[in-house]
Amino acid sequence: MWDPAVPSDCVFVETTELTLDTSGRHFVDLTDRVAEFCRSEGDGLVHVFAPHATAGLALMELGSGSEADLDELLERLLPRDGRYRHQHGSPGHGADHLLPVLISPSLVLPVVDGRVQLGTWQSVVLVDLNEDNPRRRVRLTFLRG
Amino acid sequence: MWDPAVPSDCVFVETTELTLDTSGRHFVDLTDRVAEFCRSEGDGLVHVFAPHATAGLALMELGSGSEADLDELLERLLPRDGRYRHQHGSPGHGADHLLPVLISPSLVLPVVDGRVQLGTWQSVVLVDLNEDNPRRRVRLTFLRG
Amino acid sequence: MWDPAVPSDCVFVETTELTLDTSGRHFVDLTDRVAEFCRSEGDGLVHVFAPHATAGLALMELGSGSEADLDELLERLLPRDGRYRHQHGSPGHGADHLLPVLISPSLVLPVVDGRVQLGTWQSVVLVDLNEDNPRRRVRLTFLRG
Lengths: 145, 145, 145
What we know:
Three copies of one chain form a homotrimer. The first copy, chain A, is of the alpha+beta class and 145 residues long.
């Protein structure tokens, strides 16, 4: 029997905010925390969002060398030198402010039966080269059927 | 009492389309218009979308020099020279057609109690270096609980 | 009369998975398959997702030369040489693992009255330079009102 207090097939919104310490790390693996948030949910979409102007979210393989490769790529695309108009904090900090233009801090993932439908080698990774602010937040939002 | 005509906790869809004139501007701040669209809504997600093949949407700080830094980055990654196969309009216009590959024209943001959960220094910015077409549209879509 | 078995104005979730063969192709046009999935739906958002660590999704014009231009850009940003720590498979394969950091495999599009609201020149394109794995999947998820 359909219970009007819990309409079937309707989407519900749930949201929470994680807090992170990125001290000494350019990459923080969020995969398990996103999976945990989605567990016991049904089908839907989960949104991952970093409310910061110098961080991004990437889907990438971890543990096989791509972290060092991404560091090299970012140093090449966004060299930490004196070229930036946006200057404060650490040398080359202007580069940090362009990172989220190339690596968006907003990411949506599909969820089926409470399980995030990531590929085998995909991890949800906060990318953050900013050494001036290690305290980070990440908001998770679930729309479920 | 739960009113079946307006199911509580269900998501509703609302959508609207903004029109913009980007004449002489590479960056258009959409933050206030997105915030206004979400006001008086509940919890959910807002989707921002530019239905154009030469524009992107970035989350970035405005007013501290990053606009000039992004201009420099884009000129470096997508130089406006004669290299492009896609050639029509202004010189180097082929570069404009690659911009949305690096800066997606699709962006999702979390909303809690009608307020977009942007970080302090995040603005929603249309990035558009295409001088051939200053008339732009941006579609906003809200899914709320 | 409102039928509680099909709550009006509520969002429903639908999802499916496409299978693709990318053999010999860097770019696969998904536009028609996404449009077909959304047809006979109402208003909402469609999410396109590639559960692979070496592929991305771009919105771009096809058929006017931008494919070759994107190949040139990616070779420039992610040269297929020996620089990568992540080394296995084809030479330069480490580059493939950085592609989804720059071109996200997650994309959301607005749908109004069953029609994806793409711009005239926008196509939904799987970008995949990885020659080692031509069998690809793409998950589509619809949240409709």
